[in-house]
Design brief:
Layout lengths: L2 H12 L5 E6 L2 E8 L3 E7 L7 E7 L14 E4 L4 E4 L15 E2 L4 E7 L2 E6 L4 E6 L5 E3 L4 E6 L1
Length: 150
C-alpha cells in the first residue's frame, strides 16, 4: 500500500462514522483507530518481521480551525438553517475535498431543512482550502460551510 493511499484512507475514515479499521495482506498491515481526543493511530511493520511495528499518531482537528486560509479566501455560506451533508448518501464519496477545484454551479454539499434536500452550489470557480462543517451537523443561516481561493 502506498503512502498516498494510506493518507487517503485516513481522510475517508476521518469523515466517516467508522472509529476503527484494520487491514493486513502478507507482511503488511495497517490499523487506524480514531481516539477520543481527535487523533488517529496508525501502526505498520517497519521490516519483514511482523512483530516489529511503528506507530504514527495523526492529530485530527474536526473543528473549524482546520483551515488553510489566507487573506484571499472566500466562503460559501449556508443559505438556510438545517443539517449539512457532505455527500449524497451515507458511505458515498463527499462532493468536495480540500484541495479540489470547484467550478461555478458545482454541488458542494446538501442542507436538509423541513425534510427537503437543498443542493448548495459554488457561486464561482476556485480551489477548496477548508471544509468548516462536519457531515451531519446542524448549520445556521450564513454560517461558512467551506472556504476557497480563486
Amino acid at each position: 500500500m502506498k503512502t498516498s493511499e494510506i493518507y487517503e484512507l485516513i481522510e475517508k475514515i476521518e469523515t466517516s462514522k467508522i472509529s476503527e479499521f484494520e487491514y493486513s495482506n502478507g507482511d503488511f498491515s495497517v490499523s487506524i483507530k480514531k481516539e477520543p481526543k481527535n487523533t488517529i493511530v496508525q501502526t505498520m511493520p517497519i521490516s519483514n518481521d511482523s512483530s516489529a511495528t511503528k506507530s504514527i499518531t495523526v492529530d485530527v482537528d474536526t473543528s473549524s480551525s482546520k483551515k488553510v486560509e489566507t487573506s484571499n479566501d472566500k466562503a460559501i455560506k449556508a443559505p438556510l438553517v438545517g443539517t449539512f451533508y457532505r455527500a449524497s448518501a451515507p458511505g458515498e464519496k463527499p462532493f468536495v475535498m480540500i484541495g479540489q477545484k470547484i467550478k461555478k454551479g458545482d454541488v458542494i454539499g446538501i442542507i436538509e431543512a423541513m425534510k427537503m434536500m437543498n443542493d448548495i452550489v459554488a457561486t464561482e470557480d476556485g480551489v477548496v482550502t477548508s471544509i468548516d462543517v462536519e457531515d451531519g451537523k446542524m448549520v445556521e443561516f450564513d454560517q461558512p460551510l467551506l472556504h476557497y481561493q480563486q
